[in-house]
Design a protein that fits this description.
Oligomer: single chain
Helix content: 40-55%
Shape: elongated
Distance between the termini: 24 Å
Number of helices: 15
Structural class: alpha+beta
Number of strands: 17
Largest sheet: 5 strands, antiparallel
């Protein structure tokens, strides 16, 4: 079966794949789109809820901070700066302190978060606070004045959540800072308030809630696993955080979506950790079921195709291969297939036909071989014997002139030449032997006529080729007798050889200068008719027929006019033709 042919099985399998492939591609694409849409909705929802939570925290903390700015400008607080230095009664001082403290309690209770407020008078060292036992500590207050909101861990570490503190003092001078303040107000809240909001946030959605501050301060709901919390904090540290965004991380083989939004007042972030794997699991289960259905359809289709392949394709392939083998000349080919269907009759008839063709080919081939051998012997016997007479006349003349060296050279060339031409036991010889014989023939003529020149240029790769005997000498003889002999000047014969793939070519050129277009067409017509009536066509026709008999009808002799207006004779054949000849003979 040719490479371009497609079997029935391959067509069926290809059609099945082409039908299921778009479905599979669309399913995969649809599943990806669904996952991306769901993930996008989760991201959008999480960011939106986190932004709301962060805004609520900002508002509450800003409210607390704003109250300190209002309180520090309260007349009673301003009066408290020098309360102990005024000439007021002890009762008035107690009353004014009680008034300020009531305001502190009122403000503390006005917000959602539990907070503590303290008013310091640096001049007198007195304090008014919602917390009992608060005292004025300048060194502590100076440390707390460096940041807007300070995260303070409890000293006993019993409560790891700690406290957040903000200081407001008046007047504010960047050069001296809190050391020259007239009044200082401290407001603080416990991180339990943040925890409470995180728990509220978690109860209204999915996943875990977390507060994160870049300086290694973080707070999470109690339900958050320690490993997940550690990985989330590490991921936040590695990321250049924007105002809000999303991070994907894997923990113990589970994919999580980590969304965050900044709490500007605290320079921190609220974080929501959502397990994407758990959310997408139902969708992925559905997708796997769809893939399973497609797989089952594919398996059923392949099974049906296989049954069709065994019952149809295998017999067809055996028949096609049998036809190809017969086409290649293997007429002994039989199909051993034992079919149990309609192909049994076809296979049986094919085997009978093959046997009949083999018998016919063997009979015809035997007759053809006998005919070819007889024709080859006859063609070889037609070599011109007058050449020997002319050579012997030269030997006699040179002997009379006592030219011993010329006699010896002529004798050597004649000896080699006739030793080669009279060996008829091997019809196939190496091309190197044919070239040597042609050189001997030309050398003999050059001794007789000194104006003759010749050159042989054949590639070494061609010299070991096997060719029929005496295919070159008749061509050279025609070049000398019908081309150069009539010249008054120097006559040149050139023999060249070339190969192109499996094709070979030998070209014999002469500078006779007498060939015309009309004469060339006559010679070509004589070769086409197989029987030459002109003397110069006899040798060409003999070689032409011998090449065709050995290498096939596509081989033979081509005639053309060369640059010197002499005759160019090209002998061409291919190795493939030799192989086909060997097959036919086998």
């Amino acid at each position: 079966m040719g490479n371009k042919e497609r079997s029935l099985f391959s067509k069926l399998a290809g059609s099945l794949v082409l039908l299921l492939l778009p479905v599979l591609i669309l399913s995969v694409y649809s599943n990806r789109v669904n996952e991306n849409v769901i993930t996008g909705q989760i991201k959008q929802s999480s960011i939106s809820r986190l932004s709301t939570l962060a805004t609520q925290m900002d508002n509450i903390i800003t409210q607390l901070e704003t109250f300190t700015y209002l309180l520090i400008r309260d007349p009673n607080v301003i009066e408290f700066q020098d309360l102990s230095l005024l000439n007021s009664s002890y009762y008035e001082q107690i009353s004014r302190k009680k008034l300020i403290q009531d305001k502190l309690y009122l403000q503390s209770a006005s917000t959602e978060w539990i907070n503590e407020i303290t008013v310091y008078s640096p001049r007198s060292g007195q304090t008014i606070s919602t917390v009992n036992g608060t005292s004025y500590d300048l060194e502590r207050l100076q440390r707390l004045s460096k940041d807007n909101w300070n995260f303070i861990m409890n000293d006993d570490h019993a409560d790891k959540q700690g406290t957040v503190i903000h200081l407001t003092f008046e007047p504010y001078q960047s050069s001296s800072g809190i050391a020259k303040a007239n009044s200082i107000i401290e407001i603080s809240f416990h991180m339990n308030n943040v925890m409470w909001m995180l728990e509220q946030f978690q109860s209204q959605g999915i996943g875990e809630a977390l507060f994160y501050k870049p300086d290694d301060i973080f707070l999470s709901t109690p339900s958050c696993p320690p490993e997940l919390l550690q990985e989330a904090v590490s991921a936040l540290k590695r990321t250049q955080l924007a105002d809000e965004g999303n991070i994907t991380l894997d923990v113990s083989g589970i994919s999580y979506l980590l969304s965050y939004s900044d709490v500007q007042v605290l320079d921190g972030y609220v974080v929501n950790i959502v397990p994407l794997s758990e959310i997408l699991t139902p969708l992925r289960v559905t997708n796997r079921f769809a893939y399973l259905v497609l797989g089952l359809i594919l398996i059923v289709g392949i099974a049906l195709s296989w049954l069709l392949y065994r019952n149809v394709q295998v017999p067809l392939r055996a028949l096609v291969r049998g036809v190809q083998l017969i086409k290649m000349g293997q007429y002994k080919t039989r199909i051993p297939l034992q079919a149990n269907n309609e192909f049994r009759l076809i296979v049986s008839r094919f085997n009978e036909m093959s046997a009949q063709i083999q018998q016919l080919i063997e009979n015809v081939l035997e007759q053809q071989l006998l005919t070819h051998e007889a024709e080859l012997k006859q063609l070889q016997s037609q070599i011109n014997p007058h050449f020997l007479y002319n050579s012997l006349s030269y030997v006699i003349s040179m002997t009379k002139l006592e030219r011993k060296d010329a006699v010896l050279q002529m004798a050597y060339h004649l000896s080699d030449y006739y030793r080669y031409t009279t060996r008829v036991e091997n019809q196939a010889v190496k091309l190197a032997d044919e070239l040597k014989n042609a050189a001997d023939y030309l050398s003999i003529h050059r001794m007789r006529m000194s104006r003759i020149r010749y050159s042989i240029g054949v590639a070494d790769l061609m010299r070991d080729l096997e060719v029929p005997r005496l295919i070159l000498q008749p061509i050279v003889e025609n070049a000398l007798i019908h081309g150069i002999e009539a010249l008054e000047g120097v006559g040149v014969v050139t023999i060249t050889g070339s190969l192109d793939g499996s094709g070979y070519s030998l070209i014999v050129d002469d500078n006779g200068g007498t060939i015309t277009t009309g004469r060339l067409q006559e010679l070509q017509q004589l070769l086409a008719n197989r029987y030459g009536e002109r003397p110069e066509a006899c040798g060409l026709l003999n070689v032409h027929r011998r090449l065709q008999l050995r290498y096939g009808a596509d081989s033979g002799v081509k005639l053309s006019v060369n640059a010197d207006f002499g005759l160019r004779v090209e002998l061409y054949w291919t190795e493939k033709a030799v192989e086909n000849e060997a097959v036919n003979r086998g």
